[in-house]
Amino acid sequence: MKDKIRIAVVSRGDETCGGASRVAEDLARQMAARGHEATHFVTWTSKGFTDTRKSLYGPGMLRPVTTLAHRAARKFGLAEMVPFELPAAMVGLRGFDVIHFHDTSGSISPLTLSAAARIAPVAWTFHDCSPFTGGCLYPQMAGCQKYKDGCGDCPLSNEWPIYGWSDRTPNALAMRRRLHRKGRVSVITPSQWMADTAWASGNLSEQPTVISNMVDTAVFAEPEDRAGLRARLGLPQDRPVIAISAASIGDERKNVGAAIAGAVAASSVFPTVVLIGKPDPKVHAIMGPIDFMATGYVSDRKHLAEWLSAADAFMATPMADNQPLAIMEALACGTPVYGWPTGGIAEMVVDGVTGRMIRDGSASALGEAISSDWSSKAMSGMRSATRRKAVRNFSPSAFAENHEKHYRAMMGMETGA
């Protein structure tokens, strides 16, 4: 029996590259804490390379050359279809017991996953829909189901990462189907919604395993002195504070405008809205009479936790989503979530217990729920249950343990031995 597992975690970047890469970095960190040897391979980093954070693209000039090659390929509609990174990746990934890929869009070819599966068991966590489509992240944005039939004439062909001079989505989908039908890649999804959507595509050979993402419940926690924290952040004490978060406030998929419309509808209780993320003047322009603060993008987790824990409610109204880390973080801070039960969000929020889910997508109903729950103090009454749910369902220990069990099963080991 091999107690110590050598794990290669692969993602586009380090934790500053986005939610999926942050999950990958957290996973490498948690597995190392459990006594395993975990190395995080990235295609880009702002934090520098170390003994445990290495370049998937290889050393020296190989890195910028491979990056430029992928960018050029995208212009021809060939995103991820040419495995420029394959030679360097096969050198770096050799010798590991398990290789676990995360976000690959625009940076890593399915052909590299196929090759990696010849040297070690491979897992792939689906953080969006691109692993079973022609490359689009969320076909739900266009109400499209062409990925079930073969793609082509893509309604999202102008979107990253599949934009280009020609529509190669049928070829890209065929490549992914061949990878999955070989049955050599173990699929993991953070939400049951993503698992069901991926399986219903008809492009997988086995049903995915659901392993939830994690939130650092030590960092994202209720403050000891909320009143003092709000005073320090310049937030009011006598009216509701609503937090809205997205990497970019103008991201169409995050649909911040709907959340703002809900805040406007709640204007009878005079809320203050905190916009957390890269600013967008167009969004600021529609705030109208609503009092708001724009923090900009907050990369420091402790500072982000302060904004979330100081808020009375967190609003999330995306058009499509898997298992948003921002919602996990808000719940861990004891902040109830208000919005739409989109995608995996419906699994995260218990209506009336840890927030409110407006099923008909009505901004006025969302505003009314905020006004009513603030006035009746139901909003503040949810904080304890909200925190407990996050600790119970999204803890780092459960995240690491579930991944370790999955790795041992992939390696043919008995669990719990």
What does this structure look like?
The protein has two domains: 6-214 and 395-410, Glycogen Phosphorylase B (Rossmann fold), CATH 3.40.50.2000; 226-393, Glycogen Phosphorylase B (Rossmann fold), CATH 3.40.50.2000. Helix 6 (192-200) links the parallel strand 6 (185-189) and strand 7. It contains 16 helices and 13 strands. The N and C termini lie close together (8 Å). By secondary structure, the chain is of the alpha/beta class. Strands 3-2-1-4-5-6-7 form a seven-stranded parallel beta sheet, with helices on both faces. Strands 10-9-8-11-12-13 form a six-stranded parallel beta sheet, sandwiched between helices.
CATH architecture of the largest domain: 3-Layer(aba) Sandwich
Strand order of the largest sheet: 3-2-1-4-5-6-7
Number of helices: 16
What about the largest sheet? Answer: 7 strands, parallel
Structural class: alpha/beta
- Reading the helices and strands in chain order gives EHEEHHEHEHEHEHEHEHEHEHEHEHHHH
Q: Runs with pLDDT <50, length 5+?
A: none
Fill in the CATH topology of the largest domain. Answer: Rossmann fold
Q: Please state the CA-atom Rg, rounded to the nearest Å.
A: 22 Å
**Number of separate strands:** 13
Mean pLDDT: 94
List the helices and strands and how they pair.
Blueprint: E1 6-13, H1 19-33, E2 37-44, E3 53-55, H2 62-75, H3 86-93, E4 98-101, H4 110-116, E5 122-125, H5 169-181, E6 185-189, H6 192-200, E7 209-210, H7 226-233, E8 241-248, H8 256-265, E9 272-278, H9 281-285, E10 291-296, H10 301-310, E11 313-316, H11 325-332, E12 337-339, H12 345-348, E13 355-357, H13 363-375, H14 378-381, H15 383-393, H16 396-410
Parallel strand pairs: 1-2, 1-4, 2-3, 4-5, 5-6, 6-7, 8-9, 8-11, 9-10, 11-12, 12-13
